[in-house]
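Lecture 7 notes: from sequence to structure.

We start with a single chain of 469 residues. Read the sequence below before looking at the structure.
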Amino acid sequence: MAMLSRKATFNSHGQDSEYFLGWEEYEKNSYHEVENPNGIIQMGLAENQLSFDLLESWLKQNPDAAGFKRDGESIFRELALFQDYHGLPAFKKALVEFMSEIRGNKVSFDQNKLVLTAGATSANETLMFCLADRGEAFLLPTPYYPGFDRDLKWRTEVDIVPIHCFSSNGFQITESALEEAYLQAQKRNLRVKGVLITNPSNPLGTTTSRDELNLLVDFIIAKGIHLISDEIYSGTVFDTPGFVSIMEVLMDRNYMDTEVWKRVHIVYSLSKDLGLPGFRVGAIYSNDGAVVSTATKMSSFGLVSSQTQYLLSAMLSDKKFTKNYISENHKRLNKRHQMLVSGLRNTGIDCLKSNAGLFCWVDMRHLLSSNTFEAEMELWKKILYDVRLNISPGSSCHCTEPGWFRVCFANMSEDTLNLALERIKAFVESSSSPNNNQSRNQCNKNQRRKSFTKWVFRLSFRDREASER
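Now the structure, written as tokens:
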């Protein structure tokens, strides 16, 4: 171990979060309708599989793009050879136009201010490297995407300070919550470099209101800090109120070419809106030339392949296709969202009212044995091992209140979602039956024994870490 770096020997990646542990258990016992019908159903993966047929239909109708041809002639050699890390101009042009279309063409983007990255994970980390140093901090409203503990902190060594939001107002950002988070950072001797939000929110599935966005702009002006708006779910807004980009707010306030204009940055990706996480296409958009220049240099560590750029430039340049895809995808997301919400409501479980995303923020507080995060973990384990559903507990998202869970609905078939709802219904009914208390207690004991080794290992590893520091 002495021969390895601190990164290799310290458990600072965040992989021991229940968010990732649920995935590990799913991979050991994955549901399959024929081969493993009693397996764990994956409801912890925010993946959009509802509109693949539209993409596949376009590929079938445009064989040249998929076959790396131009006017019937192969350009394989051209794409296979070295490409400049600035990206293909045709793709960057098509991407910024798609970004504008998703935002109702209320804002436009300059392709020269766009930096391509290998997914939004890379984009967010690159922005951290550009905007903050080790020991400095960004403020994030809770609950937030569990992967940010890895993406923003692990290699950059930048800290995250939570902006605590609550269910009493739908987890909206308030001025007092912002000021309190800033004060907490100062008490920890952390210099705050900015605020990062996801809009639409992951895990809430809600769009950030114009009032909240204006509040954030006022806050970063007052503090002289940056704002990052992660808008990778902007194309998943399926219901009112509509999506408002931070860029739209800045333009409405006539902040173009001002200092604050340079301190607001957008992260985008095709992983959610187009359902292509495996293509690893992300982007940073910034009005600060120094950020664009530095991020472009850093992008050489995680480029988007020329083949991917060529294919997608052809797809996104087809305006008839993009218009139909956006409209149809919204309809399908809305239908699937309603299917989950109504199915849960029939079992006595409510969801936070939402209008975007690939998931719902589900309220299971009434199913807790006590109003504690320990009780939330007990419930999560029951749902994972007994009900055999992998959902994400609110504590993994740093939620301030126990009993909330993120449940995904777009990464499976309708039949699989119906089965998941049947399992939840059976679980809730059995949980409310006093005759089943004894059997549930025995089941819990068995489950605790099953998980004991794993938890002891993790605790001993953390103890060893602490002693090595």
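The first strand starts at residue 41 and ends at 42. Keep this in mind for problem set 3.
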